Amino acid sequence: MTRGADTGRALAALAVDPAGLGGLVLRARPGPARDAVEAALARLPGPARRLHPATPDETLFGGLDLAASLGVGRAIRTTGLVATPQRLILPMAERTPPGLAARLARILDLGLGHCLVALDEGAGPEEAAPPSLTDRLAFHIDLTGVRAEAVALPVPGDLDAARGRLGSTALPEGAIATLTALAARFGIDSLRAPHLALRAARALAALDGAKTATDDHIREAAELVYPARATQAPAPEAPPDENDAPEPDRPETGGEETETLPDDILVAAIAARLPAGLLDPNRGTGPRRAPTPGSGAGARQKGARRGRPLPARAGRPDGRARIDAMATLRAAAPWQALRRSQSPEATKHLHLHPDDLRFRRYESRRDRLLVFAVDASGSAALARLAEAKGAVEILLAEAYARRDQVALIAFRGAGAEALLPPTRALVQAKRRLAALPGGGGTPLAGGLLAAGELAAQARRAGLSPLLALLTDGRANLALDGTAGRGPAMEDARRVARSLAATGLRALVIDTSARPGPEAAEVAQALGARYLALPRADARRLSAAIGAARDDMAP
């Protein structure tokens, strides 16, 4: 992420070559620093247009002008934003629908001179602009902790002169190979990154009045473009083999130095600007997990009354769907001249056919409910129960940001008890968890049955349930109250199969110190993902459940 004094250089480079660099992602909450950046962006050349997350295709690519078409009796089409090069400003970029993101990416790929400014106001790392857009934008600016005074642009005359020099500014030999190899070392697999870095180096050189970009420009461009795209920390290069023959001495030349910037300097410069979490030794150097779009949202449900508007569709009246008058008129307008010529009356009235009818459609998202069924029996050690309590508390705290609801069921002794109905109340949940005792038999079938009833109630209330079963799987109490490992396990598998038949999505966490086949068998009958975490603490257990929840998102 670009921060502090680098913000001014990134904005200046974008002002010199807005179309070539594509634009930028500005991650900032409203404040003086963001106002200063938006004021600087207003100095970019060309007109600006602010977009809405629900911008229709007619605005972007043009379409039928309904009023004009009806007035003259023939189809009149308008040109959209794609026809005129301009700066497109996208507020709340973290909420951009996939369809709009794909269309904006298409506009940038056309190379018609457009520039996109994505204003990312996400509260956490899981809320971010779509990768299909950010991959096409050169700079990612994070204004966290940046003062407004740090944002500055050169005077307009200097920017105009730099734009005039841009076309004649050259790149040094080997710059393409250097930046491409550097991107690979940081796990950047998109070729757009080195391409944008090359454009940034030329723009920075034009700003400084250089005819050819220098090593400093290459380094600065890499520092501005690569850190936000890096997916791994660079692995150290292998030392040279002692058996390899040394290279012969190069003849001295009286000309200028032709050596390129050493790779270790470039790597160190970029590594110093990588996101802090990427270099965390506890997470390794593997690729980062991309945030799940719409994390926390439940299953989609279509409707004709409320929700996010969808494009109108043709259909037949059924007494429930609502007619979209504007879409119906758009469908009928191109045929009016032909229909009037074929009509014996030849009137000027509007001619509508059943095939012209278009109906409104909406889409809403159900809230997601995480149902925790926790084994509090004597076979679950007290330390494991404490870890399960900690995991539920952590996930409940995260529910505020992810918009999830959480419910808690504990089973021990004679049966199961719903300790916490669906809620986001953190204080109430902690009190119920703290009061949860341990010990007694393991009525696993009863716990599954109670979780299934709660999930069915959640579905009727419009929620999308996900069951997280924390148990060692060693059931010893059947549904009829009789003790015995065999009948209890058979009841548990039978209830699990019935829950799987209802389509309930589930996850089984084996909390046994030495995982056996019992929990795995229950997971198989439940059609659930199985995780054996014999040495997981509360934080790692929470991370595993959160990852499984995102993988199983609809």
Which CATH top level class of the largest domain fits? Alpha Beta
- Gyration radius, to the nearest Å? 30 Å
Tell me the overall shape.
flat
Cα separation of the termini: 31 Å
Here the CATH topology of the largest domain equals Rossmann fold
- Fourth CATH level, the homologous superfamily of the largest domain: P-loop containing nucleotide triphosphate hydrolases
Structural class: alpha/beta
Helix content: 25-40%
Q: Round the mean pLDDT to the nearest integer and report it.
A: 76
Task: Characterize the biggest β-sheet.
Answer: 8 strands, mixed
As a percent range, the share of strand residues is 15-25%
- Integer tally of domains: 3
Number of strands: 15
CATH architecture of the largest domain: 3-Layer(aba) Sandwich
